[in-house]
Amino acid sequence: MRLLIIEDDKYLSDSICETVKELFEPEQAFDGEEGLFLAEQNIFDVIILDIMLPSMNGYEVLQNLRKQNITTPVIMLTAKDGIDDKIQGFKVGADDYLVKPFHREELLLRLEAMVRRSGGLLKENVITFKELKLNIKNKTAEIQGEILKLNGKQFDLLEYLINNKNAILTKEQIFDRIWGFESDTSMTVVEVYASNLRKNLKKYGYDHYIKTFRGLGYMLTDNGE
Amino acid sequence: MRLLIIEDDKYLSDSICETVKELFEPEQAFDGEEGLFLAEQNIFDVIILDIMLPSMNGYEVLQNLRKQNITTPVIMLTAKDGIDDKIQGFKVGADDYLVKPFHREELLLRLEAMVRRSGGLLKENVITFKELKLNIKNKTAEIQGEILKLNGKQFDLLEYLINNKNAILTKEQIFDRIWGFESDTSMTVVEVYASNLRKNLKKYGYDHYIKTFRGLGYMLTDNGE
DNA sequence: TTTTTTTAAGGTTGATTTAAGGTTGACCCT
DNA sequence: AGGGTCAACCTTAAATCAACCTTAAAAAAA
């Protein structure tokens, strides 16, 4: 679970990081433009967005995102308490709202509720797909009783696929998520890893479940065909 | 959209009804047990739940519901302002929280955000024409229960036609939309794709619905002949 | 060293485009 | 009305092209 914090108050931002680090991998942006740029990568599970920001305010960031059909859940954060702000925030597409100062526990709970609502699961130690079990913590995979050896990025890919089963993931998304959007390696690595992953799953007949959609991306699916 | 309001203050309950009646069909319950009974029917899209209630408090109602795997989104409502209440509410599975007194507009916006999150969005990912369903996200088509395989541009064409059913689309429009107006391929591809699409729909008797208007363009229509 | 990651190259598949010949229907002429 | 002509459209199949797969070797990391 990746969380983007767009907040110019470094002290507050760090403190949020600290608060959530059990459940999320946080990333920080300290002004509006930087935040928008990062959010546009569309690789985060939740975004915490302050309203008063240098270079571009929170509303603009959010509006911009929604215009691009990026639907990552957003929690707006502000010192202002007026209802007008709340209304504006929701109109632009925020999913929740938190008034500073807030209790850490409340933030955590709202984050959880948010992620739960949007179908995601909080960081679990074990995720499964049919008879395939991934232990996120030790990065081990088990299938039909046997232990399956997967190296780092292959594991990450499989994890990402399982967490988004029955949804198409574009090569861009996969690349941005696993290699990082600023990585300068070529996007064809994704194909190579898809290939390797399939090879490893073939033994168990699970390679079929990774479907490629030409021009669109990949999907892990369990509904037959 | 059906909304259940579980709130013992009749005046407040009525006033909520009034506020939301544009967007929801509200139903009222005035104590915990009645509310639980109604909620158990699992026919509502959202529930507004007060905490202080006769016969059974809001936490118990919610806990009970979740235990039965009823996941209707719930907004908790209370006069208490302490963080402890919020925590308890979220722990039991509330999806949002509102402190009395609240602005009507805020309630409305939270309701909208809630519904949007819990599948309101999903509906926009699917468009239909008679028994034909297109899932825009997965780019899959389903007709009369069967899955229909369409390649990229065929799918795009069908999507465009469905979104403009009962309106004539010129070949230029179709071409510009799907191939891009700067494309240097010949406009006759549109005919080829119309042909292929019809061939694929023929099996289900849906080819007739794509009518060509000589000199004008194509139209997808569902009113007979 | 051993393992993992990245690059490079050639092969495969299937979508897209072109081309060619066949239909259809509008319009004109006698 | 009937027949001829033509342009628009349909259909098919072959040619082309881009996306993707696979493999193996090179580079980097452990």
UniProtKB/TrEMBL annotation, chains A, B:
Residues 124-222 form the OmpR/PhoB-type domain. The modification 4-aspartylphosphate is found at residue 50. Residues 124-222 bind DNA. InterPro entries: CheY-like_superfamily, OmpR/PhoB-type_DNA-bd, Sig_transdc_resp-reg_receiver, WalR-like, WH-like_DNA-bd_sf. SMART domains: REC, Trans_reg_C. CDD domains: trans_reg_C (cd00383). This is Response regulator transcription factor. PROSITE patterns: OMPR_PHOB, RESPONSE_REGULATORY. The lineage of its organism: Bacteria, Bacillati, Bacillota, Bacilli, Bacillales. It comes from the Bacteria. Gene3D superfamilies: 3.40.50.2300, 6.10.250.690, Winged helix-like DNA-binding domain superfamily/Winged helix DNA-binding domain (1.10.10.10). Keywords: DNA-binding, Phosphoprotein, Transcription, Transcription regulation, Two-component regulatory system. Pfam families: Response_reg, Trans_reg_C. The keyword Phosphoprotein applies. Transmembrane segments: none annotated. Residues 2-115 form the Response regulatory domain.
